[in-house]
Amino acid sequence: MLQSRKQFVFVALITVFMQIRIITVDSFNDAEYMTIIVDEAMRNLLKQCNKSEKAEAHTTRALQQADESPVTLKQLSDLMEKTVRQLSDSFTTRLMQRFPKTCADILPPGVLDRNDVYSLHISGYTPINVYCLADTAGGCAWTVVHRRQDKNTDFNLRWVDYKAGFGDPYSSYFVGMESLFWLISDAPQELRIVMRLNSSTEEEVANYDHFVLGDEGDQFALKLLGKFSGNAKDELTSLIGYKFRTRDRVGYCIGKEKVGGWWKEGCAKSKLNGIYAPSKWEIPTQIGIIWDNKTSLGFNYSLEYVHMAIRPKYCTKINTEL
Q1: Which residues are the signal sequence here (predicted)?
Q2: What is the domain-level CATH number for residue 217?
Q3: Last-in-domain residue among 45, 66, 98
Q4: I need a labelling partner for 38 at 20 to 30 A (CA). Which of 6, 68, 137, 249 fits?
Q5: What is the pTM for the complete model shown?
Q6: Which residues contact 100 (CB under 8 A, 6 or more apart)?
């Protein structure tokens, strides 16, 4: 009976391992991720091989006692299911820590002193560098995908540049349409746009709770934005359905050759990739960084600062005390 029970336990352990392997491969499907699984399995095997005779004798006694108290198949099945779930969750946590897909995987809610540039891993792509920004309200961190704060980076670029991304994550940059598409495709995302006319004005915010884009075949069209909130005007919802345009794939507008990439066909009331010219400089209408009548000065004046950031939508449900 003891030998039979040992065989059953051995088969159960093999079954658990195979189920964990299947769950992990299905979830992550990446050779790098499998390295963690192999390392973990090897460490566990070494631990088993290095057990002392005393530990082995203790295990034997435990099995003998188990023979005296029969365990039903239902109990064993429940135990196996619980073990698989716990180990799978553990592997998932470790994988997210080693291969983060969003800044929410890097900065815990409530941590406000670790804003910096980090690498995110998109399956099948080279890791990308982004700026991670803590949420001052205690929610999950934001992944900054676009920022304008100086004139050192040219945003009047072509389709190939906007697809790949450009600039410096520590200052002005854009993560790239291809990377942005994959970042928001893994799970429902919300979008936050923070803008400021100049250093003497308060920041204004536009929030959208479900940000969805089409793929490159659809020219990264703006598909969905969800519910709007914030103290800025909503000047993006009207662009739903429009394809992304660059200077070599333009729609029609005044100064269309200088306004940078954006979702537009005509003269949209929001363009965040125009010429960087803070409000103290007057420039030709419609070619600066504009968000409708963000300023009473009109379209001839440009924003001094703006950034766009995303995070998984579920993060809004987290309530963490600072």
Answers
A1: 1-27
A2: 3.90.215.10
A3: 98
A4: 6
A5: 0.69
A6: 106, 118, 119, 120, 121
